[in-house]
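Hey Z.,

So I finally got round to the NAP thing we talked about over coffee. Here's the setup:
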Amino acid sequence: MECQAFKIQEAYMHKACVIGHPIHHSKSPVLHGFWLNKYQLHGVYGIEDIHPDRLGDFIKLLRNNEYQGCNVTIPHKETIIAHVDHLSEEAKRIGAVNTLWVEEGVIYGTNTDGFGFISHLKEQCPDEVSAIKTAIVLGAGGAARAVIDALCAQGLKKLILLNRSVDKAKKLALHFSQYWQNTEFVTDKLEHAYQYCSEADLVVNTTSLGMTGQPKLDIDLSNCKKTAIAYDLVYAPLETEFLKQANKNGLQCIDGLGMLLHQGRPGFEKWFGVFPEVDDDLKAKILSAK
Ligand code: NAP
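And the result:
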C-alpha cells in the first residue's frame, strides 16, 4: 500500500529542470531546490544535458507532461524558439528564451533576464529607478539584449550602447529602436566610454570582462555623476574591478548575483505555484555552492 501511495504522489509531483549542453556547472538546481525546500513544496528540479540533436526529443517529453517546464541555457536559447507555441513579447524582442512552461499541451516561452535585471535594480535602488533617464550599456551580446529591452520598457530616454565591435552595437540599436521609439540610441566603441559618463544615471557592464579568468573592464568612471549607479552583470567574482572603481568614485554599486536569482522567480511560479522571494539565505546558499 505504502509503495502504491508513493507512486501516486510521484505522478502528481511537479517537475522542472534546466536544459543545456554542457550543463553540469548550472546553479539553477541549487536555486530552485532552495525555494522548494523553503516553501515546503512537493516538487523536483533537475538537470538535463540535451545535445542540440536531441532538442526535439526533449520537447516531446514536455508535451507529454513529463515536466511542467524548464529553464533553457546555452546553446538552446535561440533554437528553442522554433519549438515554442506561444512566445512572449519580450522573448520576441530579445530573440532568446530562458524559461518554458506547459499548459494543456501548449508550450509557452519567455525571457526572464530583463525581469531579473530590473527587479534587482528596484530592490537595491527603489527611490532612484524612476530618475534613470540616460543609461550606458557596455557590451552588445546576449545579456545586453535583455538589459536594453528592460531599460527601454521602463521609459528610458537615452541609451548609450558601447561595444568593442561597434557594428554589433549598431545592429542591436537598430533592432531595439523599432520597438522603443521614445528612446534615443547612441552607439560607439567601448574605449570611448569616458566621454559619455558625465550624462549617465546608470552604467551597466554586460560584457564578460571582469569575470574570473577574463581581463578586467578598464573604464574611467571619474567624471560620472555622484548620484549614478554602477551595475555589473558579472557575479563571479562578486566585487569586480569595475565595481571597485565605481565605489571609489562614490557611485552606488550593484553586483550580478541578484539578477541571477530574480530571473528564476517567474519560472518557479509557473511550475510550482508560488512566487518566491530572494533573501540573504538564498544568496549565501548560491555563493557556497560548488
Ligand atoms: P556574449 O553574448 O558572449 O557577449 C559578450 C560581450 O562581451 C560582447 O559584447 C563582447 O564584445 C564583450 N567582450 C568579450 N570579450 C571582450 C574583450 N576582451 N574586450 C571587450 N569586450 C569583450 O555573453 P553574454 O551572454 O552577453 O554574457 C556577458 C556577461 O554577462 C557574462 O559575464 C555573463 O556571466 C553575464 N551574465 C550575467 C547574468 C546574471 O544573471 N547576472 C545573466 C546573463 C549574463 P564583442 O561583441 O566585441 O565580442
